[in-house]
Write a structure and sequence with these properties.
The chain is an alpha/beta fold. It is 39% helix and 10% strand.
């Protein structure tokens, strides 16, 4: 029996053609349902314009600092988080003439609410001198015990310094210590930088 006499379902070419026609018809008639059989749900949603809701971007509060002293424009400034001291000085217009930043760490991070003050040249020296002055022993106010803290001054010499003050009046000059018996030139040179006659 030749090929023409065989039923259609025994002919591979015709069987394949019929199967393709059926699949095509199903896709046309049942498009969404047919896609769901072959594609995952997530893929179908993506193809149908499904959008993921975006979360709001968190906002970070700025740093608020006060810059004063030897800068061009002293004022309160807002800086971005992570800013350094040098950024604060630049926000204030930069350094003024005679500014002294030798004691300032320009790379330090700025803290919220911080006060950054740039001293003028010579201001630091004046502060140091004032601090040293406060540590000097006042010849006209010190007790005998306080005078004994001076190098080379014992109980006897301390008592004589106080006696000289009480008998002849307040010291007018530090050099008047030479009038106290027992204080020679060498000892005087040692204690002179450590004493004062100030108020």
């Amino acid at each position: 029996m030749d090929m023409e006499g065989q039923p259609w379902y025994r002919r591979p070419q015709r069987v394949a053609a019929v199967i393709c026609a059926l699949i095509g018809g199903l896709l046309i008639a049942f498009g969404p349902e047919a896609r769901a059989m072959w594609w995952p749900e997530e893929a179908v949603k993506a193809t149908e314009g499904f959008e993921v809701e975006a979360l709001p971007t968190p906002t970070v509060a700025p740093l608020v600092v006060y810059v004063s002293g030897a800068v061009v424009a002293p004022d309160v400034y807002r800086l971005t988080p992570g800013a350094r001291v040098v950024d604060a000085l630049q926000a204030a217009g930069g350094l003024a003439e005679l500014a002294d930043v030798s004691g300032i760490n320009l790379a330090a991070q700025v803290r919220d609410g911080e006060h950054i003050r740039v001293p003028y040249a010579g201001e630091v020296m004046a502060q140091a001198a004032t601090s040293d002055q406060a540590r000097l022993i006042n010849l006209n106010r010190a007790s005998a015990a306080e005078l004994e803290e001076l190098p080379g001054i014992g109980v006897a010499l301390a008592a004589r310094i106080v006696e000289r003050r009480e008998t002849k009046g307040p010291y007018q000059r530090v050099e008047e210590l030479r009038e106290v018996t027992g204080i020679g030139e060498k000892l005087f040179n040692q204690i002179a930088p450590l004493v004062t006659i100030g108020p």
